Amino acid sequence: MHRQQVPAKIATGTKAPDGEGLSVVGTYPQSTAFFWPTADGRCCIAIYDPSYHTVQCHESTKPFSRTPKLIRLYETDFGSPGGYVLLVAADRETIRSVTCGGAPVEFREVRVYGRTDAQRTVYALEFEGWTAGVLKVRASRADGVHTSTLPPAWTDDEVPPDSDWHSCGAS
């Protein structure tokens, strides 16, 4: 039901989705989170429920990389109990695994967009709550599988004292 209401209420005008429409990031007890690129190349995310909604669009999307690269798009609590999501765009690569402090992180493909010669895949990485530190990502590229690091928005040093944040470690 939310999928039909979002375009009519908040994904309009300059925030309207490209020809592919909306992609579901996640569904939660009272809300649904959506991702979409606009016709002019911006990326948008919306959290929608019947009584509340919010939408954010990057005014200028980072250009497609000429080489394989991971790009953090959005990072927030999407309203699920303990749920914290990091949206990651992978230019010219496919995520195979993600770990946080050695423990596997759940992830799923949200959408592939772009031209054949410059495709970007958006993934949702899900955590039990606010997370800091550094993630390890294994990704397939044209020349094989590579491991790289991806920091969430916060470092361990920025975590409030006595908080219930989860740490992936410094490296």
What is shown here, in short?
The protein is mainly β and 171 residues long.
Description:
With 171 residues, the chain is mainly β. Helices cover 5% and strands 51% of the residues. The chain is built from one helix and 14 strands, in the order αββββββββββββββ. A four-stranded antiparallel beta sheet has the order 1-2-3-4, with helices on one face. Strands 5-6-10-9 form a four-stranded antiparallel beta sheet, with no helix packed on it. A four-stranded antiparallel beta sheet has the order 8-7-12-13, with no helix packed on it. It is globular, with a radius of gyration of 16 Å.
- Report the principal-axis shape: globular
Largest sheet: 4 strands, antiparallel
Strand order of the largest sheet: 1-2-3-4
Amount of beta strand: over 45%
- Helical percentage: under 10%
In DSSP terms (H or I, runs of 4 or more residues), the helix count works out at: 1
Layout of helices and strands, plus pairs?
Blueprint: H1 2-9, E1 23-27, E2 32-37, E3 43-49, E4 52-57, E5 69-76, E6 84-91, E7 94-100, E8 103-104, E9 106-115, E10 118-127, E11 131-132, E12 135-141, E13 144-150, E14 166-167
Keywords, please?
single chain; 171 residues; mainly beta; four-stranded antiparallel β-sheet; 1 helix; globular
